[in-house]
Each structure stands twice: as structure tokens, then as C-alpha cells.
From TrEMBL:
Residues 103-136 are annotated as: Disordered. It comes from Marinomonas pontica. NCBIfam families: TIGR01244 family sulfur transferase. Residues 141-260 form the FAD/NAD(P)-binding domain. Pfam families: BLH_phosphatase (PF04273), Pyr_redox_2 (PF07992). It comes from the Bacteria. This is NAD(FAD)-dependent dehydrogenase. Residues 5-107 form the Beta-lactamase hydrolase-like protein phosphatase-like domain. Residues 113-125 have a biased composition (Polar residues). SUPFAM superfamilies: FAD/NAD(P)-binding domain (SSF51905), Rhodanese/Cell cycle control phosphatase (SSF52821).
Length: 546
């Protein structure tokens, strides 16, 4: 980091790393400001990661992003508010220029005055910079959706297709929305990471209110959601689609070494490109791929990373010099037996060493050692150590903390719903879908695609006073990329029942096919952005209970 001191208590630089945050903390910085939008360039460290790490160092972090040459009055006023009580500030962008310019503009501008600023800028920044006196009062909506991921946005869009006049509020603090199934292909050198990201504001359905806030808790007996800022949002119907928490810190030493020392994961936007860098540059040694205990989202993703890596090494005549191991906390390769033979054939083709009931518990990045807890056939527990040159980790996963500590969950911490109607078992005006619910299906984007119309139809029927009849059959899809150009398209529902979209003569999902590859690489991304998120229910019209 090349740090430029503008004043005694304000410095700027180019994009910082987590190591730079350590250096800033040691120098006494108390506030970090990021002036660049997330995803501005490939491999850019997201602001959320900087903010989370800064918090551990007792440093505040503010995101005031704008593109080069597009600084607004709103940005300047927000910047003034952010630095008002800070005593040692560091700001960064791509080169440091924007952070210098906004500092200069803030010094030249008078404090925000609605009479001298354009209405739009004043309104936006007043909300951002100053808590309102009435921020604890209640705002009422027909439907409140917690979580603006795949499940939340598609449900809101499907509801509006049925009832365009609904007053809907989406609550989510994220600035970016990601097509996460694409990260496997980023890690395999097929996609660019930036193509999997959109600004959240660009994907929120029209005529829907987006509250860029975090939820603190729920008051289901009062039909209210409480935000972290103290505001209460009232609803007639509530949809909980808060996603899943990737618990990196559950593995000792992992967070400190992610993105360096050969340790990576396709489960994070900023790390998937590092996976591809490691794969391209590994000429020999040991590659280790891990899978934690269930449930996790996209249970096939840890294997997908391994198969695509092996395919590259094989085609570049490197695999003979690379020892590949797969450590799985579970007891089987894949949970639906019909797909195992095809996967086993690739395990043999790539000469992968499989280790079942081995759960990753510790990573020593600098010394390139991974440690797994296992139990032998006699019930004896032990820790197994292995070295690595490349380590691809899938982290253990739980429901988000504010969900697990809420009154909406079952004993395991997931939102407790009927597995067919997706209606809460206790609170009948609450529904939940996606990764956060306790439905016993595979946690995939395809599952959310099938669940969203069910929730939308049932809420629409409830609003009209009709009996809810739409049911979800447990459908989930896992396109297992076994090599570049071929995919085993696993599609199944509750109980492992096969639920193929296409007839066997067109695509046999139990075997690797090129058609499934075309579907994943070329068709599904636009289908997602322009179909699912817009409320188009192609191939997923809800089944109605008779």
C-alpha cells in the first residue's frame, strides 16, 4: 500500500488488502472509507470483507462509492458526515485520486443545507448522515421480504406478477447481488467474476421499496420486523429469505489464510479467481479439496471445483505430477445414489484419493498443513494431518445469527416451515424459502426458483381469503461439472426422487452430457437475470394441491 498523507489525520491510497488494515490499525487509524464500487475490477476485495476485518481491529468503516468523474453532492455530504467526529482517517479507491478529490470537495463545501443543495442529493444524504427523530416508528407494508438474494427477489417479483398493487418492502443491507452458481466456472477459468455481479439497486423489482438495512430481530406476535437501527417495519405477510451464513471462523486458522498460501474457496466472489490462478500455476505437488457436514448450499460445489481443476491438469499433462485428495465430512460421494456411478468414474479417471468422515477443523496456511477430525470403525476419534500445495475449502454453514436467535426457528436454528406449503408452522402469515428454511431439500438456487412461485401463490391466495394450495415437491438441481464441456445434471426432490426437466432421450441426467454444459454456461445466467429475478416462472409453475 502506497499511503499518501493529505493532512495530519487524513491519508489516501490505492485499493487496500486485509494486511493493510493491520498496518492502518497499528498507525492509529480509526476510520476507513472506501470510495470505489464493489466489483469495479476482477479480483477486487469487497468492501464487506474490509469492513468485517476492520471491525475486528476496532476500526469503523464507511462505504461511499462513486465511479471516476461521477462524484455527486450526495457523496460529498455523506463524506462530511462520516468524517465529522473521526480523528484519524484513511480513504482508498482504485488509485487514491477519488479519495483525494472528495476530501477537497468536502473542505470547499459548506455543511449540508437543504436550501442550497438539489432536492435529490439533500434527501438521500440526510437519510444517510443523520438519524431521524422518528426512526423507531413503524412503517406498514402488505408484504415484507427479509433478504434480497435469489429467493427473496424472485418471490417479490412473482408476487407482483399476481398482484401488481401490493406494497412490498425488501430488506437487505448488501450493495451487490451475485449469481453465485457462476463462481464454480470462475474458479474453472470459464467465467469472469465481474460477470456474476450486479448492483443491488439494479435487480430490485420495480415498485418495490428496498430498505438497505440489517434486521435485528422479529416480533411475530406484533407482525413487525426490528432493524438494527431501531426502526420497526410492520407487515401483513412476512417472507424470510435470509440465506445462509458461511462460517469461516469455525475452522481454526482459516480466515487468516484465505486468499493466500494456496488456500482458496469458490464459495466467495473475491476468492474464485484465486482458485483459477492456483490451478493454472500448479505444476506438481498436492491438491486438497474439502467438504463439511451438511447442510451446505450446493452440496456438489466442492466436487465441481475438484473435477474442473483435475480436467485442466489432465489436459495440460500435469495431473500425473499432482496428488489430488478429497476429504468429505460425510460418508458418501453424493446423497442421491443414481448419480454416484458417473461421479465415481471421474474419481477414477482423475485418480482422486477419497477420504470420507474427515472434517476439516484447522488450517496452518504458512506451513501448508490441513487437519481433519475423523472417527474410525471402532469409534476412536483422531486428528489427521496432511500437507498441501493447494487447498480448496468449503466452509461449514449455518443460518444467519439473527435468524438462529429469533422466535421463528426449529431446534437446529432454521426457519420452521411446512415442507410443502412453505408456510411457518406456528405463525400463519409468515413464509420462508431458500437456504434459511428447514425444508429437507438440497439448498440450491434451483430450489429457490421452484419455491418462489409456491410462496407467491400461497400469499396471493391468503390475501384473497382462499385456501392455500400451492405445494413444493423438494426439487433441487445440482449441475455437477465433471469436466470442461460435460455436466452430470442432478435433478431430484424429496427422498432423492429423480425429477428431470428433460426426457432421457434428450438429456440423461445420470450421465455426463454436453447439453447440460450448454445449459449451465450459456442459458442459465441470462435465464436467471432476465427471467427468475423478473418473476417469469418458466418450467416452475406451482403444483396445486387437489
Amino acid at each position: 500500500m502506497l499511503r499518501k498523507q493529505i493532512t495530519d489525520n487524513y491519508s489516501v491510497s490505492e485499493q487496500i488488502s486485509l494486511d493493510d488494515v493491520d498496518a492502518l490499525a497499528e498507525s492509529g487509524v480509526t476510520l476507513i472509507i472506501c470510495n470505489r464500487p464493489d466489483g469495479e475490477e476482477e479480483g477486487q476485495l469487497p468492501f464487506a470483507d474490509v469492513a468485517a476485518y476492520a471491525k475486528e481491529k476496532n476500526i469503523k468503516a464507511e462505504h461511499i462509492p462513486f465511479a471516476g468523474g461521477q462524484m455527486t453532492t450526495a457523496d460529498v455530504i455523506a463524506f462530511q458526515a462520516a468524517i465529522k467526529d473521526a480523528d484519524n482517517i484513511h480513504a482508498y479507491c482504485r488509485t487514491g485520486n477519488r479519495s483525494s478529490q472528495i476530501w477537497q470537495a468536502a473542505q470547499e463545501a459548506s455543511p449540508a443545507d437543504p436550501s442550497t443543495q438539489d432536492n435529490k442529493a439533500s434527501s438521500a444524504t440526510a437519510d444517510k448522515a443523520q438519524p431521524k427523530e422518528d426512526n423507531k416508528t413503524t412503517t406498514q407494508y402488505d408484504v415484507v421480504v427479509v433478504g434480497a438474494g435469489s429467493a427473496g427477489i424472485s418471490t417479490a417479483a412473482s408476487l407482483l406478477k399476481r398482484k401488481p398493487g401490493l406494497k412490498i418492502c425488501l430488506i437487505d443491507p448488501a450493495e451487490s447481488h451475485f449469481y453465485q452458481p457462476g463462481w464454480t466456472l470462475v474458479g474453472g477459468g470459464v467465467f469472469k467474476a465481474a460477470n456474476t455481479r450486479r448492483n443491488m439497486a439494479d435487480v430490485i423489482p420495480a415498485h418495490t421499496k428496498w430498505l438497505k438495512e440489517a434486521v435485528k430481530t422479529f416480533l411475530p406476535n406484533e407482525n413487525k420486523v426490528v432493524l438494527e437501527n431501531g426502526q420497526k417495519i410492520a407487515y401483513q405477510y412476512l417472507v424470510v429469505a435470509a440465506g445462509i451464513k458461511l462460517n469461516w471462523d469455525a475452522i481454526e486458522g482459516l480466515s487468516e489464510t484465505l486468499g493466500r498460501n494456496g488456500v482458496t474457496s469458490n464459495y466467495r466472489y473475491d476468492l474464485a479467481p484465486y482458485t483459477w490462478d492456483l490451478v493454472k500455476n500448479l505444476n506438481g505437488g498436492k491438491a486438497v479439496f474439502t467438504q463439511p457436514p451438511m447442510p451446505i448450499k450446493c452440496a456438489g460445489a466442492p466436487q465441481k471445483a475438484m473435477y474442473l481443476s483435475c480436467d485442466h491438469w489432465l489436459k495440460n499433462d500435469k495431473l500425473k505430477d499432482i496428488n489430488v485428495s478429497f476429504y468429505n465430512a460425510g460418508a458418501v460421494l453424493f446423497g442421491v445414489a443414481d448419480y454416484v456411478p458417473a461421479l465415481e468414474s471421474y474419481i477414477q479417471k482423475y485418480q482422486v484419493n477419497t477420504h470420507f468422515t474427515h472434517n476439516l477443523v484447522k488450517v496452518d496456511g504458512p506451513n501448508k498443513r490441513a487437519y481433519f477430525a475423523t472417527t474410525d470403525k471402532d469409534g476412536e476419534k483422531s486428528i489427521v494431518e496432511t500437507e498441501f500445495d493447494m487447498l480448496h475449502v468449503c466452509p461449514p454453514q449455518t443460518a444467519p445469527d439473527f435468524i438462529r436467535n429469533s422466535p421463528l426457528v426449529d431446534a437446529a436454528g432454521w426457519v420452521d416451515v411446512d415442507k410443502e406449503t412453505l408456510q411457518h408452522t406456528q405463525f400463519k402469515n409468515i413464509w420462508s424459502l431458500g437456504d434459511v428454511s428447514n425444508t429437507p431439500n438440497a439448498k440450491t438456487m434451483a430450489a429457490a426458483r421452484k419455491q418462489a412461485p409456491v410462496v407467491a401463490q400461497n400469499i396471493a391466495d391468503a390475501i384473497d381469503g382462499n385456501t392455500i394450495r400451492a405445494i413444493y415437491d423438494g426439487y433441487g438441481s445440482c449441475p455437477l461439472t465433471v469436466e470442461r464441456g460435460k455436466i452430470v445434471l442432478a435433478e431430484f426432490g424429496y427422498g432423492g426422487k429423480l425429477l428431470p426437466t428433460f426426457p432421457t432421450w434428450l438429456n440423461d441426467g445420470t450421465k455426463p452430457t454436453y447439453l447440460a454444459w450448454v445449459l449451465k454456461e450459456d442459458l442459465l445466467p441470462p435465464f436467471y437475470w432476465h427471467g427468475m429475478l423478473k418473476g417469469y416462472e418458466w418450467f416452475v409453475k406451482p403444483t396445486m394441491r387437489k
